[in-house]
Write a structure and sequence with these properties.
Largest sheet: 4 strands, parallel
Number of strands: 8
CATH class of the largest domain: Alpha Beta
Number of helices: 12
CATH topology of the largest domain: Rossmann fold
Number of domains: 2
Radius of gyration: 19 Å
């Protein structure tokens, strides 16, 4: 019988509280999976994974599904819009129901922060965080680190600027916690209304001019759906002051790479032509998400 301790160790709830060595082992295993010539290697044959998305997602859900199927797992996809959660069934009861049917691991995306951590204490299957509120998005940060490592060889000594809606960004938090474990310098740039003041003790807020003097320029999506307070007056104004325009991109250092967790608001936080330029790693990040999530799901279901 699987012990609670082993289940806890195989879950991936965030990167803030796991070791550099653990992150390194996931990245190394991702490199192993990326190097395999066969698309399907059924190491998770007869294992069942369920992707539970209580918040909309396209890229993350498809990336997890591709990773699971390439490992030979049986995959079930669950979205809240087509579920009894709409009828009032709690997230806890939904997860327990799926657990009782014999699922081996669950991937979960949730709107509220903190709920996933409580859920993990109450179920006996490994859970993988696919994004919870503005708390963490660990697999996105892992694929970000993997992309940087492939490009620069190592993470130590890199300066990484994260620019945009820090306040609502779980990606910014997971990237911050993980990059600092490897000796990278993280700095933020954001309009005052989009700054997360609680993170200022971990990384400085700098001007846009200073932020562009970095090895990695990570643009964040302006999360319009979370801006109930009207944090930006217009897309054009945001682009003018904080967007990675073609003009700004042309002034970046020759070795600087451009990243974005996607989906992209083209011509808002980043110009259309910049998304497609040679130094943009945006589609590389998406490709790297599959081997990274293969490593995460193998760890969850096999240990």
């Amino acid at each position: 019988m699987t012990t609670a301790t082993s289940v806890k160790e195989r879950s991936l709830l965030g990167l803030k509280d796991i070791s550099r060595d653990e992150i390194d082992s996931i990245l190394n295993r991702a490199a192993y999976w990326e190097a395999q010539p066969d698309k399907v290697i059924p190491v998770l044959n007869q294992k069942f994974a369920v992707n539970m998305f209580f918040e909309n997602s396209t890229r993350t859900r498809f990336s997890f599904e591709m990773a699971e199927k390439r490992l030979g797992a049986e995959v079930m996809n669950f979205t809240a819009a087509a579920s009894s959660v709409e009828k009032g069934e709690s997230i806890y009861d939904t997860v327990r129901t799926l657990e009782s049917m014999g699922v081996d691991a669950g991937v979960i995306r949730l709107k509220p922060s903190g709920v996933l951590q409580e859920l993990a204490k109450q179920v006996s299957i490994p859970l993988v965080n696919a994004g919870d509120g503005n708390n963490e998005h660990p697999t996105q940060a892992l694929l970000d680190l993997y992309t940087m490592k492939k490009n620069f060889g190592e993470l130590k000594g890199l300066t990484v600027s994260i620019i945009g809606d820090i306040k609502h960004s779980r990606v910014a938090r997971s990237d911050l916690w993980s990059l600092q474990k490897f000796g990278a310098k993280v700095q933020f740039c954001a309009p005052p209304s989009m700054q997360a003041s609680e993170l200022a003790q971990y990384a400085p807020y700098v001007s846009m001019e200073q932020a562009l003097k970095a090895d990695v320029v990570m643009m964040l999506r302006v999360q319009l759906e979370r801006h109930h307070e009207g944090l930006i007056s217009s897309n054009a104004e945001y682009r003018e002051h904080y967007g990675l325009t073609e003009e700004r991109a042309s002034k970046l250092s020759g070795h600087t790479i451009i990243m974005h967790p996607a989906p992209v608001n083209r011509n808002v936080e980043i110009d259309d032509v910049v998304v497609e330029c040679s130094r943009s790693m945006i589609f590389n990040q998406m490709a790297n998400g599959v081997p990274v999530r293969m490593a995460v799901m193998e760890r969850a279901m096999k240990g």
